[in-house]
Amino acid sequence: MKNMNRLEQITQINKGLTETVANEFPKMDLNSLNFKPGPESWSILECLEHLNRYSRYYNPALAKAIAKNADGTFTGSINYSWLGKKSLDIVRLQNMKKHKTVKHMNPNNSQLGRTTVDEFLKHQEELQQLLQNAKGSNLNKKVIPVEFFKLLKLRIGETLEFMVAHQERHVQQALRVKQQLAQQVAA
């Protein structure tokens, strides 16, 4: 991935996440998808629902921002604001520290069904299209209001990267839950 620009790298990671979810979770039974390793832990469906809640806000915000800033000034590199750096640092896989999510984004103890997986995959298709559309946009335009505090704004590029990094973190979490379920069944 060394010769790819950052947007291409993010796009490839997003494709991999979509394939992982499409291959790993749809064939599981509903009880397995709702298995929780502990009372405060999230199930596979809760991990995906958390991401769906973010996508419901950020995908339309990104679509609007990309359309408004499709001025052909694409560079492929992303400049990061202090808020963008901080947001990315929190959600990166390398950051093993647990973080509390805002209450309305926390799906713990939700009643969820298979449609949660379907919705996640639909959001992934939307995000993939947004990543393609962003190739004609100014990625460094600061226009995306932060979901929990709309006075703060992120740049288009850092928001796209945040979305994919955040998804990567929680898809890995869902895969760990699946592994814990397999270990419990085997015991």
TrEMBL record:
Residues 28-174 form the DinB-like domain. It comes from the Bacteria. Pfam families: DinB_2 (PF12867). InterPro entries: DinB-like, DinB/YfiT-like. This is DinB family protein.
